[in-house]
Specification:
Elements (H helix, E strand, L loop, with lengths): L13 E11 L1 E11 L13 E5 L11 E4 L10 E6 L13 H8 L6 E8 L11 E7 L4 H15 L7 E8 L8 H8 L7 E6 L13 E2 L2 H8 L16 H6 L7 E6 L2 H11 L13 E4 L3
Parallel strand pairs: 7-8, 7-11, 8-9, 9-10, 11-12
Antiparallel strand pairs: 1-2, 1-6, 2-5, 3-4, 3-6
Helix pairs in contact: 4-6
């Protein structure tokens, strides 16, 4: 019996249009927003969830939708915001662009259309009851934490104090790649929000934009430093003055949960570090929660 042809998921998706496109540090990194072409609000979602996006003209080699974490907050469903990097060497030859992101970069003009559906995923703060949430991201893995921080700010403006304090560790290769830096620094300056933001650069010695207010080393090694674990990378991790003790006070198996989003090597490395320290890695009540789509 011949195998049944798989239905094209794009047939079930709805149409949206690009409303803004902002490069972050270089042309391969961007923040963009979309709105539905029918003028309706987007679906209800929780901060930390993702949407699926696609194009009708994606290459036939891989027309599947891609999962992208939503960076905008649930309180405003008029548009959705995403943080994305152009994938290079993602095609069948060594010089091709990624099937989805290569198409996205061809449609980065305001008014260009794409397809969407969602929401999906369980990478939200409802997964934990711990009062301290340590959010570790590499690159565009920052997006779900931006949504969480924005939602917390919105609720604070309505008089609702945060149930959990967020510590956001964002790792990039060079300082110019620190998307959302100004916004997160502003949110961290609101005492009632309780947000701590640690941007870290893994190649500080070759970065002309590196400055003393930034941490040094990979994101996982910065957390390893806070956990008193040896680093796994070549660059010795270092925090700006005064940050270490403040964050260490937030750590402990009885009070902390760790959310990990980004490079799979970062995620596996931190699981190896956190497990022996008594943090539950899986199952009901897990204190280490990961996202595979970002």
């Amino acid at each position: 019996m011949a195998a049944r042809a798989r239905r094209d998921l794009r047939e079930r998706m709805q149409e949206a249009a690009l409303t803004s496109w902002e490069e972050v540090g270089n042309e391969d990194l961007a923040i963009f927003r979309i709105a539905r072409t029918d003028g309706e609000p987007f679906f209800q979602f929780r901060a930390g969830q993702y949407a699926q996006l696609a194009f009708w003209d994606q290459p036939d080699g891989d027309p599947r939708p891609r999962q992208l974490s939503i960076a905008s907050a649930p309180y405003d469903r008029s548009e959705l915001e995403f943080y994305v990097v152009l994938v290079r060497d993602g095609g069948p030859d060594g010089e091709s662009l990624g099937y989805f992101t290569g198409t996205l970069w061809q449609h980065r003009n305001v008014g260009d259309t794409l397809l969407f559906m969602g929401p999906a995923g369980r990478f939200d703060l409802g997964r934990t009851s711990e009062p301290e949430v340590i959010c570790v991201a590499t690159g565009t893995g920052l997006a779900p934490y931006v949504a969480m921080a924005r939602q917390a700010r919105s609720e604070l403006e309505e008089g609702v104090l945060p149930e959990r304090r967020l510590t956001v560790i964002h790792g990039v290769s060079y300082a110019r790649e620190l998307g959302y830096r100004a916004e997160l620094e502003a949110l961290a300056a609101i005492p009632e929000l309780g947000l701590t933001y640690i941007p870290t650069v893994s190649r500080p010695d070759s970065d002309p934009d590196f400055e003393p207010s930034l941490a040094r080393g990979r994101a996982n090694d910065v957390l390893r430093l806070l956990l008193d674990c040896p680093p796994s990378g070549r660059v010795e991790p270092q925090l700006p003055d005064g940050h270490g003790e403040v964050i260490k006070d937030r750590l402990g198996p009885g009070r902390s949960a760790f959310y990990l989003c980004g490079n799979p090597d970062m995620i596996s490395d931190l699981k190896e570090a956190l497990g022996p320290l008594g943090y539950q890695l899986s199952g009901r009540g897990a204190q280490v929660i990961t996202e595979d789509y970002w």
